[in-house]
C-alpha cells in the first residue's frame, strides 16, 4: 500500500465505504448530474527541464521524500484524518411549490488508516455512531459495513484482491521499485498546475501501467494515475494530486490528497491530520478476527 496517495487501494477503500454509505437511505439528498471536470490547462509545449534519466529522477525523489534508508526503515505507519462524505447538493420545495436544488457544507468523516509491511492494511471509517472496517492481510481482505445493516464480514471481490496484491507497498511506486518487480521509464515532461514536471511511466509487476508526475524543482510527486473507476458501466480515468507536504519524523508526506475522476465535477478530498511512524501494530489488526468485538459494541 502506498502512502503517497493515501495508498491507491486505501483511497479506493475510503471511497468504496462512502459510496456504500450513500446507498443507505438519505431523506433529502440528491446527486448532481455528472459533469465533466475542468482539467488544469496544459501548455502546448513540453516544459524545459534538465536532462535526467529515469533512475536519476527516482533517486532525487527518494532523497526529497526523506531518503531511501529512512523509508526502508519504516515497517509500520498509521494515519488519522478526515474525508469528505459527498452529498453536498439536495432538493427542496420552495414556498411557491417549485423544486429547487441547494448546496450544503460537506460532512467530514473521521478515519484511521494503518499499514504494515509488506502489504497489510486496516481502514476504519466513522459514520453516524458506527464504524466501518476494511482489512487486508497481504493475501485476503474483508469488509465490515454496519451502516448498511450488515453485521457480518464480507470478503474482498476478486477485482479488489487483484488490486490490493499489485499495490507497491508503504513507500509508493518509485522508491525501491525494482525490488517490487516494476519498471520505470521517462515519458517526457508536462506542466501540472503550473509546475514543470517529469513524467515517469511505471509498469507494475502485473503489467498495469501508472504514470507519476514528479516536480522538476522539489522532486516530490505532483500527480499520480489512480486505478480507473467504473461508473455507469464505463471506466473513467482517475488522477490523484498529493498536496500539502509536511515532514513527519523525517519523511515527507502529503497531508491532503485530492482525487479527480474523469466526467465527475466534484473532486474527492482526504486530509491527514496526524502520522505515526513505526507504531506497534499486531498482525491480528489486519484480519477479520475482531468481528465479535465490533458486533458486540453496537
Describe this structure in words.
β4 and β5 form a beta hairpin. With 298 residues, the protein is of the alpha+beta class. The chain has helices at residues 8-23, 54-64, 68-72, 158-165, 291-296, and strands spanning 76-84, 89-93, 99-103, 108-116, 120-127, 130-136, 141-144, 154-155, 183-192, 195-203, 209-215, 221-231, 234-248, 251-261, 268-277.
List the helices and strands and how they pair.
Layout: H1 8-23, H2 54-64, H3 68-72, E1 76-84, E2 89-93, E3 99-103, E4 108-116, E5 120-127, E6 130-136, E7 141-144, E8 154-155, H4 158-165, E9 183-192, E10 195-203, E11 209-215, E12 221-231, E13 234-248, E14 251-261, E15 268-277, H5 291-296
Antiparallel strand pairs: 1-4, 1-15, 2-3, 4-5, 5-6, 6-7, 7-8, 9-10, 10-11, 11-12, 12-13, 13-14, 14-15
What attributes does this structure have?
13-stranded antiparallel sheet; two-stranded antiparallel sheet; outer membrane lipoprotein receptor (LolB), chain A; alpha+beta; 298 residues
